[in-house]
């Protein structure tokens, strides 16, 4: 008998669920995407930040802007971290014990403190208020990262860090100067599991109603 394919849910797809359950259902069940937005610059900057942090990892140091603002040190196992970063071929996986679903995620970086692992997530922003709605928008993402680490045998402190980089000005030779802020956030495995279960339940049922504030999904009503 052919084994049924596992359906992957991730922080990004569950972000879509939180924004609009119908858009989430259309995406996962029908392959109907929202109009794509361009995040090339942000994705490139994430890659640059990872290389920047990797250079300090090689020197057994942390970037100076994080001194006194974080617990632990940069996780030293570069090979394993690279696997954890890979969202397309994920190494951090949780398979649901009953249903044909798995939760996956790729982290930006990780700290190590004694025997505990602490995820770091990079954020670029143009807002003057670094922490504006950060819990609302990113809490579930950090919950999932810690839950995945725990599910794969890595102890966590139930905390994670958001590291914000906000471009301030261009100085000599085209160098961009950034303002940096670090926010420590508590996490919950229970919230991560609950959100995962909600996403599964939504996909096992009929198409949800259009969200009253969603500008994308109402157009699909005639065909769903």
Q: Give Rg in angstroms.
A: 19 Å
CATH-defined fold name: Lambda Exonuclease, Chain A
H/E series, N to C? EHHHEHEEEEHEEH
Largest sheet: 5 strands, mixed
Coarse structural class: alpha/beta
Uncertain segments are none
Report the strand count: 8
So what's the CATH class? Alpha Beta
Number of domains: 1
Number of helical stretches of at least 4 residues: 6
Question: Taking all residues together, what is the mean pLDDT?
Answer: 88
Sheet with most strands: strand arrangement: 2-5-6-7-8
Which architecture name does CATH use? Alpha-Beta Complex
In angstroms, what separates the terminal alpha carbons?
A: 32 Å
Strand content: 15-25%
Helical content, roughly? 25-40%
What is the 3D form? Answer: globular
Could you characterize what this model shows?
This is PD-(D/E)XK endonuclease-like domain-containing protein. The chain has 224 residues and is an alpha/beta fold. The chain has a single domain (7-220), classed as Lambda Exonuclease, Chain A, CATH 3.90.320. The protein contains six helices and eight strands, in the order βαααβαββββαββα. The strands form two sheets. It has a five-stranded mixed sheet, sandwiched between helices. A three-stranded mixed sheet has the order 1-4-3. Strand 7 and strand 8 form a beta hairpin. Helix 5 crosses helix 6 (189-204). The chain is globular and about 55 Å long.
């Amino acid at each position: 008998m052919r084994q049924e394919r596992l359906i992957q849910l991730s922080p990004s797809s569950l972000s879509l669920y939180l924004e609009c359950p119908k858009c989430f259902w259309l995406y996962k069940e029908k392959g109907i995407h929202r109009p794509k937005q361009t995040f090339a610059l942000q994705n490139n900057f994430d890659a640059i930040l990872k290389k920047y942090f990797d250079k300090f990892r090689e020197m057994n140091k942390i970037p100076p802007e994080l001194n006194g603002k974080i617990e632990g040190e940069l996780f030293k196992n570069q090979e394993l971290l690279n696997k954890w970063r890979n969202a397309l071929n994920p190494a951090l996986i949780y398979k649901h014990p009953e249903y044909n679903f798995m939760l996956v995620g790729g982290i930006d970086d990780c700290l190590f403190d004694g025997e505990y692992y602490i995820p770091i997530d990079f954020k670029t922003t143009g807002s003057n208020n670094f922490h504006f709605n950060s819990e609302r928008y990113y809490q579930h993402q950090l919950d999932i990262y810690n839950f995945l680490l725990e599910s794969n045998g890595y102890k966590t402190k139930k905390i994670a860090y958001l590291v914000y980089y906000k471009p301030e000005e261009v100085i000599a030779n085209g160098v961009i100067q950034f303002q940096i802020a670090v926010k420590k956030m508590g996490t919950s495995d229970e919230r991560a599991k609950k959100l995962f279960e909600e996403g599964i339940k939504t996909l096992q049922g009929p198409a949800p109603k259009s969200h009253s504030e969603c500008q994308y999904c109402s157009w699909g009503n005639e065909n769903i």
